[in-house]
Design a protein that fits this description.
It is built from 17 helices and 27 strands. The protein is an alpha/beta fold. It folds into 3 domains: 197 residues, Rossmann fold (3-Layer(aba) Sandwich), CATH 3.40.50; 166 residues, Rossmann fold (3-Layer(aba) Sandwich), CATH 3.40.50; 104 residues, GMP Synthetase, Chain A, domain 3 (2-Layer Sandwich), CATH 3.30.300. The strands form 4 sheets. Strands 1, 2, 10, 11, 12, 13, 14, 15, 16, 17, 18, 20, 21 and 22 form a 14-stranded mixed beta sheet that branches. An 8-stranded mixed beta sheet has the order 7-6-5-3-4-8-9-19, with helices on both faces. It has a 3-stranded mixed beta sheet with strand order 25-26-27, with helices on both faces. Strand 13, helix 13 and strand 14 form a beta-alpha-beta unit. Helix 2 packs antiparallel against helix 3 and helix 9 packs across helix 10. About 1% of the residues have low confidence.
Amino acid sequence: MKKNSKTKKSNDFPWSKYYKEDDIPSHIEYPDCSMVDMIMQSAEKWPDNTAYYYYGHKVSYKNFVRKIEKTARALKNYGVKEGDRVTICMPNTPEGITMVYAVNMVGAICNMVHPLSSEKELEYYIKVAESKYVLVIDAVFDKIYKLRDTASLERIIVVRPSDGLGFLKKKLYNTLHVKKVRLPANDNRVVLWEDFIANSYFYQGNYHEERGGDDLAVIMYSGGTTGAPKAVMLSNRNINAESMCDSVMIRQVEPGATILSILPLFHCFGLGVCIHTPLCKGMGCILIPAFSHKQFADIIKKNEPNFIVGVPTLFEALINTKLKPDDLKSVTAVICGGDALNQTLRDKVNSFLSAHGSSAKIRVGYGLTEGSGAVCLSPENTFADSIIGVPLPDMEFKIVKNDTFKELSVKEEGEICISGPLVMMGYLGDEAETAQAIRLHDDGKLWLHTGDIGYLGEDGLIYFAQRLKRIIISSGYNIYPTHLESIINSHEAVLTSTVIGIDHHYKGQVPKAFVVLKPGYKPSKRLEREIRELLERNVPVYALPAAYEFRDKLPTTKVGKVAFRELEKEEKGKQ
């Protein structure tokens, strides 16, 4: 799909003043190169900087590039060719990120999948990408191995969690963790990571294919909470542009800084913002393969990160950790994305940061897989309810009336559409869905219809209202669950909540609220009454929940968002 060649001048945008105030360029020249080329440039500039930390083991940029090159030779030795698709089914480990760039180096394409996906999901991801090679963490090897024939797999490379540790730590880990996944003894399609790398010696030919910005680099999957997953195609330029835009939007991005890389590499926010962006700027990624709320305080104390990037549930965990007054003094930037951040949680996070030694204020990012990750970021020290902020350089936003191309005026809510270098190439093997998502408007530009509702504020900033498919329509009135949730969450006893629509014989649908209380509080009629009265003070009668249910926890998706579709299915089953 041809990208737009024309862009407006910086002073044409309502948000241009924010670029000027923060010295942000409205336009960037993006190199016509691959993802791994950007990493190699980092290694040339900052060879001795630490590229990543993994349970105390650290690797410099020059050694990271050596590992990438060795892995690329191993791929070629096992027959991987330019254009092949290599499935990476890994948490955030050194082998996972090394493989991403090695695959890119040999001119192949990364097919990024969640290790905890079901067997059926994995089969779909591998088949739709036509992938014959898989890198997998040993804990989920059995699921992949069952697909060896149905998916026609040629090679399964198995990683153990200890593979990325130093020699002594690896030996200690393997001694303490004696339980190992049993691998088939007589199947040459299966190879352990250490043997895979050792065999790289047998390949002495060319392993660095020259690839351009418009070449396909990564396949990721979206639609996990709405309908069937779609394979999103992202180019080298998409991912590189994400890195370059992030770097100018966040002034704290600088060589030598460190970031908690908790968000997984199989998620676009994780790969684009938490892995590729820091690695393109000489920063150090603190790799966290398995995040535990209980270990959050120890992770922070041991690593003293400069950046904390996460989804709202991570920040709910942060404000419930026990830290000393100066334990967050190293933190200079805090970014929240992946889901709406309500004002109550935002204020709590900012207070927690200040109380524990950090001068950072949480900034809100907005993005989607089809947009290579983040496409919009709130300015520093600019706070307002529902704000998502300023589009990244070269990204244009417009708000249109639902199911039309008609652009709406300031403060009118409609569908958010975006155009620019971060917009995906399209959906793999699905021209119809691609045409539905990316449309040619009357201005001659291609616009991605996000399916999200927002509006342009009088201040020139973009505001988020609601996911298009989460509107509850009751007696003809539109009710936005996020608004109700932000009010419920402001109650002192509430940890989090989710509101869904349930069927009603007359009104069509009415809201129902699911509420999780903070430790120390117990469900009661009194608490329910207080929450109801709080809502009565803030929303019209037609928007009030018809029912409340207290839960110990809410179901979440694989990337930490509340799985409201599961709650909807439960309610359907009761009727």
